Amino acid sequence: MTNHWRDIKNADLILINGANPAEAHPVGFQWFMRAKLDPARGPGNGGGAKMVHADPRFSRTSAVADIYVRIRTGTDVAYFGGLINYVLQNSLHHDEYVKHYTNASFIVKEGYGFKDGLFSGYDPQHRAYNIASWGYELDEKGFARRDLTLAHPRCVFQLMKAHYARYAPEMVSRITGIPQDDFMKIAKLVGEMGRPDKVMTIVYAVGLTHHTTGGQLIRSGAVLQLLLGNIGRPGGGMNAERGHANIQGNTDHAISWEILPGYLAIPAPGERTLDDYVKEKAPKKLDPNAWNFFGTNYRKFMVSLLKAWYGDAATKDNEFAFNYIPKPAGNSSWMSIFDQALRGKMEGVILSGMTATSIGPDSNQVLQALANLKWLVVMDAFPTTSSEFWHGPGMDPAKVQTEVFLLPCTHWIEKEGSFVNSGRWMQWKDQVIPPQGEARDDHLILADLFHRIKDLYQHDPHVGKFPDPILHLQMDYKDPLKPTLDEIAQEINGEDNVTEKRLSTFAALKDDGTTSAGDWIYTGSYPESGNLSKRREGVQDPEKNDPTGMGFYPRWAWSWPLNRRVMYNRASADLAGQPWDPKRPGIRWDGAQWTGDVPDYPPKMDPKDPKAWLPFIMTSEGTGRLFSATMADGPLPEHYEPVESPVENALHPGVSASPVAFLYDQAAGRPSRFGTPDEFPIIATTYRLTEHEHYITQQVERLVQLQPEAFVELPEGLAQEKSIKSGDMVRVRSKRGEIQVRAVVTRRLGQLDLGGKKVYQIGIPIHWGFVGVSADMFPEKSQHWLANMLTPFVGDANARTPEFKAFLVNVEKM
Amino acid sequence: MATLTRRDFIKWTGVGAGTLALSELGFDLAQAYSVRQTLRIAGATQAHSICPYCAVGCSLLAYTRKEADGTTRLLQIEGDPDSPVNEGRLCPKGATAMDLAISTRRVERPLYRAPGASTWQQVSWDFVLDKVAQNIKATRDRTFVTTDAAGNVVNRCEGLAFAGGAAFSSEEGYFATKVMRGLGAVYLEQQARV
Asked: Could you tell me which residues come within 8 angstroms of residue A176 by beta carbon, excluding any fewer than 6 positions away?
């Protein structure tokens, strides 16, 4: 989230796409309801807000929304594109913000273009873009040329206007299935949100991310928010609701192939030196008034990380052990792991608190991948569909040669440490009870394993490959076999290596090896004064603990970066430093300094100084990006059909699905596993229920009692056509597999009219499988409950996030 | 409890959502709840936790008592009324967090399944840690690439993947990244993408 849960109460309008917070994040949803209903705050003060829910399925969120529209799954770019078009055509954007706080005025190179569904630079053989033509026109100093009148035909503003002119209401309706009248009602509400005294938030979840166009679905919302001047403001922003307690923290700390802690990029093979790496990866300053904070300090953050990991072995002479960091050959994300296993190239997988079999996509294919491994380690508190995969659906244990280990782990309440919530709040938790049985903490298992591996290399240094990074990895803990989470939290924060004092800000980090920090965005979380994530000054005393009255609660826990509660908050104030809406200030220039939230800006920089930095201090441009050359599938979000779709792309039928989505099976020479609409005419999507969380709650009796058995939701019309009644057993098939579950016939789903073509969408909750309380009760039936048996093995062109949310199936009564 | 506020009421009853308002009942149950709760957590130690499920990040209060035999008994988990995130409220999952915390369904000892075997074997920690360490070293040595075809130093291990982390503490996650990158792992993943 750019903002945080409590901040949603500050909004005038809440757009919810690809999310169902009333059911999936019920306690967070109280802030949506308070925005609507809080009698203490009138309209404009956080009360009287309107809520719009666009979702394939009517849910409890829809029930309390002011407008609900049934949208075809995966078509939100068309929805947001239509809103962008409405705002631009009617000049409803926030003019001053767009001119000065976005890259609308930046001039794009000659040669950029978009035609028949393809941006310039497409290479069909590699299914990839050469993005050279997407850059800005530069002046002799290397800065981008701008036209603050926004009239230049190649400025971002004009390019955008032309691009989205195609997203007229009738086109939006034809693609999304939303009736034009309903769409126009939403457009009128959204159109008011460009006024400085109004603010809108967009809230989304995996209903946007889990698509082949996931990155652009989110960007299309962010572009709309920038046009309306709503990024950086309390009550605004682009807010992702994350689904697991600590996805945020462990993304920040980079358990992710493409990054190192603090979103530093993993080096690529051609980057032979630290200089090469910084030159290639650090963003470059594109405007004289852009601070380009990240790019400017990239080297300091990287060297400080290398010092945290390699200590005295990281010296100037060896470039701070830069070459100890592995350089991947190519994409190494989730699906790539199982693709490599299917190719026979992956030997061993360690899964901690994640079950590949249930997660999928294409669980049949994942089961085959697991059976191709030499060994599999499952670290978990409970058995999972992965620890048990060798006797799962369609598996013959005698033929599965994978060696499997199930290591009992402690869970959250048996250990201390922090969880970081969707709003970037790092909240410390105590160890409340001792480990059950022989369970051990995940990090203690890894510390022990690491030392056993190190011993093997030490005893026989000539036999092992390049043992240096292992032998030198800093394990400077009181007991290296048992590091405490408190010690690790201090390492993450970082210190001055000379004074050995912990640092209070990443501004103090250096690139000469005299500082270390395990994750620069957390520097300041644990200064000399102590662990700030333990702070508990909350709503027991609102007057004292929420001094601005905006709900920041600055002494409750700690949020990155630097305890800032709303990111990009310089953009909450006008050029002179005064809040766009004085009733809802983020930060304010008082003549001497910035007050309010922790400023996303130098605390004493006078906004009227001609040399003052532009508001978005992290970007190369100093502005938000309406147009971005950082995406693999285009600088402006464009609607592409899901890989499996019942219709052609109405905008450009020749390029219907994303031309750059990576097709794993095709690339590996495996037969296609995509279905066609003649055989599979029904659109399916997957989702979650209030009573379950992913797969772990299959082990919790009381929650299983509330939602005991796998089911599929079918719209009434489709059920009638197929003579299916609620409670009947049905078979749902895709090209990849099938499930056998109970039917729930409902009006929550319905038919869509896509320019005259009528299609149905069905909904499949994901939570069940062949392991857990329900599976114990129904051992035979539960073999057919894995929802991800149906989902396609394909993902987003940028993030390779799998397409869990839009695919084709057929349904029959059993 | 004549001056019972809503916040006190939540604090005493433990579960905000799903509790009936006093006026709907027609009589004041708060007194009875408070007595019952007081009895349940009398002499208990209060600790702070965070809900283990979604990423709203609801604060929890957890109460334990040291038993005569030296064991620690978890008595109660409830929403923390001081939190600016949840103000004491919990959803059905958070409200049943006790059932996740203490369960007869837990894996309590290391288990090993040999290639082709149709059952688990209960084994010792030393057995599994030695065997996994040997496996990792063998895989690393077999699949480690020091220099790629273009002559670039890449120092990567291609045959090993680690995935996890949405459920463990941030500090454990950081440590996992450090150890895995130290081993040269490039296949590194967690729940954010899936």
From this structure: A54, A69, A71, A72, A75, A76, A78, A79, A82, A183
